[in-house]
Amino acid sequence: MLQPPSISEDRVRKLLPSRNLLILIGLVLLTILAWSPFSADNSKALYAYFLDVGQGDCILIKTPSGRTMLVDGGGRPNSPYTDVIGRNVVVPALRKQGLNRIDVVVLTHPHDDHVQGLIPVLQDFRIGMVLDPALPHGSDSYMRFLAEVKKRKIPYKRAVRGQTVNFGDGVCAIVLHPPDERLKEVSSYLNANSVVLRVTYGSSSLLLTGDAEKKAEDEMLSAGMNVESDVLKVAHHGSRSATSEHWLDRVKPRIAVISVGQGNQFGHPSPEVLERLARRRIRVFRTDCNGAVMIRMTTRSLRVKPVFPSVKD
Amino acid sequence: MNLCRRPLFPFAVAFIAGIICATSMVSRVVTPCTVVLTIAFVGYFLCLRNSSRLFLLLLVSVFVAGVLRVITYQQVSPNDVSRFAEGKSVLITGRIASDPEAFGDRIRFVLACEGIGTYERQCIVSGNAMTTLFLSDDARYKIPCYGEVVRVRGRLRIPHFSTNPGSFDYKAYLARKRIYCTLVGGIDDLSVLSGPRRNLVWVATKARSLLESRTLALFPPLEGKLILGILLGNYALLPPETQAAFMKSGTMHLLAASGFNCGIIVGIFGYLMYKLTTPRTVRHLLLIALLWMFAIMVGAGPSIVRATVMVSAFLAAYLLWRFPDLPNLVLFAALVILGINPLALFDVGFQLSFTAVLAIMLVMPLVNPWIQTFFSPLIATSQTALNPHRWILSASRCIATAVALSVASTIGTWPITAHYFNYVSVVAVFANAITALLVVLLTGVGLATLAASVLSPVIAYPFSLVGKMLADLMLAVVMDLGSHSWSCISVRSPSWAFMFLYYALVLWVLTHVSKNDSAIKGTTDAATAKY
User: Fold this and answer.
1) Does the residue A196 lie in any domain?
2) I want to staple A158 with a disulfide (CB 3.0 to 4.6 A). Which of A134, B250, B300, B363 is the partner?
3) Which of residues 257-296 of A touch B (CB under 8 A)?
């Protein structure tokens, strides 16, 4: 009868991995498992971050597949520190999301409180495309913005009504304004020709209005644009020159976000606008009171999570 | 080098655990964990022998000391000035408790408040307020200086939490320094009531402003500011884009006063005193005094205090006829800093400084013999000192050591940088290897220029030219490496669990490698002895 070959205890010990090696493998595996990308949020949702940039606008859109769009960058007009908002608020917020590339950067109009914060973003991140209304404006910040676009050879597009940015994962951004023939004879040429975007994901939608004023709102409605949205970024920091009754009736938002600076000299947001929103029982979130506001949208549901749910401090 | 077997290690861990527990009392995770651990500890304690019981009792005492230190540190006085912070305009009398720093159109300093109210009537308050005064176009104003008693009108506010994801939390930062309110006004709203109290800090701040003004007079503005950053760790004067480039290239630590500056002081003054045949006791005592003077001069940040405590203890050990042990010195420095300010544990500067030093201490003994073994025979074969081949080899050895140091500190610090700043610099090792040499040269030339300027500006001129050239080269390297979108990559904040496991892994691997290394060396030595 054949006997199985005998294996000595020493040989068995040699074949088995040593205790130290097992500890090493265990530690390496645990460390890899604890690395945050594995525990990152992979839910199929669209995120919109309305950053608190003081008296200005800055909105980051992150699609379910991780594509990104940054609408405006905030800024501090009349300050010698032009990059302070970009460096201290926008860039850290983008880095916090682990972003290295922004697919689309949209400048709604070239006022300092929208453009300044974009300059450090162009310097620090890879940019897929810049969408700009290309309105004539000679401010230092806008010139620096254009110079960075040129220096870094970033594809540049003039925003025109009807353009569509399809992110390929069910998220689509449509330019509703300005028309090819820009609005003229208005109190503020730049504000009136602000880029207005409607971002849709399934049946949920988000309307980003820049500083578009009443004339722009009327023009969009008369052109038959579909403006109906769940979330409205209140135009021009809640100025009374925008967000008319008729506009709110057509947009029918459930949630309104006002990007506004605390104790600003313009008295924004206007009590009239707040009253219009309150009358329609629209939930209002303000960056001066709530800090940054995060909105999570799935194809069916919508959730709002501000930094300060009630009022800060 | 086994850090865990040092006698101070368990006590440092116990003290840190006490601080963490005290600051997370309300945490839903930490409190039940503490209760479970306490029950387990008591059970274990009852099963122990007498000698182990004593050791455990000591550990528990240190843990409790950590908890109590946090509680006493966080206590706010009933008449603290922050209790009056309602955003209204107030008139405050107090003493300037930090050297006023200029940031473009404003100056900032800590005001140790003594009274609050009106011009006629003031009530007594205590505590500090971070004061910011905006400078006016009127050139007649005078910048106040440290120690002066002043009266300021401004808005007293509670600072805000961070309102954006990833932004700097100013409120938490100030709270770690026991400052709970901010005062904002204009320079015209300030009046000086009495002159400064002339103490050691006043002398240090005067010496610092003298050094600053001399450096800025001797070099062009940008280069002067860079040299000031290297010598005194004052990088606030540099333009924001230059600071951003230093940050993205992972070389920001070069602009912070730390062990390098202590090394320079000990090197230069130690050598001079040695040449003057100063007795060793006097020499060491004088060096310790000089180091502390320098630490006060540069604002006593965590990295310079860590280095000063370490070097002072190192020098003191020789005075006591003891051989200094580096890991124990690091642990001692940590205990001293945390004893003074327990909340420094949560300061990113403290964490970066200690992890970098520990990583260097663990990695360099393993790598250094390789570098020496590779280069030393080659250098020895190039016989004459003037042989260019010898110079190239020596420079290569320096570069290899700089790369090893840079890699070691990166191993230690990247999770912390990723956690707090959400980026990892991909050019850091390369940038540090190049700039490390430039920093050494620039420090030498900068100090030589300052010393020569005391004799005559004419003698200082050639030095300043060389300094300018070196500073330009360093700026060019940093700006080039740090200005690309690929210079650093964004990462999501690693979890605390990841960081804990990562450091455990690094510590375990390095300790084992070093143990094996010693074992191999021991075997080789035995074999050599045999033959």
Assistant:
1) yes
2) A134
3) 287, 291-292, 294
Backbone torsions φ then ψ of A140, nearest 5 degrees? -60, -45
**Backbone phi and psi for residue A175, each to the nearest 5 degrees, phi listed first:** -80, 120
Subunit contact A34:B164, Cβ cutoff 8 A: no
What are A65's two structure tokens?
A: 């597949």
The residue range of the domain holding B501 is: 364-426+487-520
Taking each helix axis as running N to C, give the angle between helix B348-381 and helix B496-530, from 0 to 180 degrees, rounded to the nearest 10.
Answer: 30
Can you spell out the DSSP letters for B314-339?
Answer: HHHHHHTT----HHHHHHHHHHHHHH
Both tokens assigned to A143 = 């010139």
Sheet holding A59-62, edge to edge: A156-158, A126-132, A101-106, A68-71, A59-62, A46-50, A293-297, A302-306
Q: Which amino acid is at B142?
A: K
Domain CATH code at residue A151: 3.60.15.10
Q: Which of B358, B373, B401, B369 is nearest to B511 (CA)?
A: B358
Please report, in tens digits, the pLDDT of each residue of chain B (531 residues total): 666 677 788 889 889 988 988 887 655 566 666 667 767 766 666 666 667 778 888 888 898 899 899 989 988 888 999 998 888 889 999 999 988 888 777 899 999 999 998 666 778 999 999 999 988 877 667 888 888 999 999 999 998 888 898 888 899 999 999 999 999 999 888 999 988 888 888 888 888 888 888 888 999 999 999 999 998 888 888 888 898 899 999 898 888 888 888 888 898 889 999 989 889 899 999 999 999 999 998 888 888 999 999 999 999 988 888 888 888 899 999 999 999 999 999 999 899 999 999 999 888 888 888 888 887 777 667 666 667 777 787 888 888 888 888 888 888 899 999 999 999 998 998 898 888 888 888 988 988 998 898 888 888 889 999 999 999 999 999 999 988 888 889 988 888 888 888 888 888 888 777 666 665 555 544 444 443
Indicate the number of domains in chain B: 3
Domain boundary among B73, B97, B128: B73
**Size of chain A, expressed as the number of residues it contains:** 313
| B189 lies in some domain | yes
Among B105, B164, B505, whose Cβ lies nearest the Cβ of A291? B164
Please give, one letter per residue, the 3-state secondary structure of chain A: CCCCCCCCHHHHHHHCCCHHHHHHHHHHHHHHHHCHHHHCCCCCCEEEEECCCCCCCCEEEECCCCCEEEECCCCCCCCCCCCHHHHHHHHHHHHHCCCCEEEEEECCCCCHHHHCCHHHHHHHCEEEEEEECCCCCCCHHHHHHHHHHHHCCCCEEECCCCCEEECCCCEEEEEEECCCCCCCCCCCHHHHCCCEEEEEECCEEEEECCCCCHHHHHHHHHCCCCCCCCEEECHHHHCCCCCCHHHHHHHCCCEEEECCCCCCCCCCCCHHHHHHHHHCCCEEEEHHHHCCEEEEECCCCEEEEECCCCCCC
Q: Specify if B396 maps to a domain.
A: yes
**C-beta atoms of B167 and A92 within 8 A:** yes
| Interface test with chain B among A20, A31, A99, by most B beta carbons within 10 Å | A31
DSSP type of residue B420: H
Contact: A24, B508; criterion CB under 8 Å: yes
* ipTM value for the complex: 0.81
Distance CA B177, CA B160 (A): 15
B502 vs A contacts (CB less than 8 Å): 31
Mutation for A interface: B82, B348, B490, B493, most A CBs within 10 A = B490
Task: Establish if B169 touches chain A: CB-CB under 8 angstroms.
Answer: no
Residues 6+ apart with CB under 8 A from A188: A211, A213
Same domain, A31 and A66: no
Put simply, the answer to whether B483 touches A123 (Cβ < 8 Å) is yes
